[in-house]
């Protein structure tokens, strides 16, 4: 234990190296994020038809947490989810610091999100998107997300 404490004290005295900025997204990363950003824009405008252009309608939207039913789980098809969109509600969802993995024509995006309604934080959690590229175009197959109304960032 004393060796570990000595090591930590030495590291603290020397300081840590400066943080380096992450590189800008490459073409594949930007292409994977494009349908996600388009879906968020459709959420904001209440454009159900626009949202469905960026997803596989037979895919699923799965929610867990405080916004789900009493069992803690809610599942819908993208079509059912689209039926809930309403223009003018002031809905806005933003993700930050996405972790993106791509293997060929399959991709995964995991990111914290914050939802605002009328400019006020409504809920937050983590989004998990899985995407498939078909004929050169990325589309969202499924979205699974957690949801809570406490400990949300105010950003």
From TrEMBL:
Pfam families: Lumazine_bd_2. It comes from the Bacteria. This is Nuclear transport factor 2 family protein. It comes from Sphingomonas daechungensis.
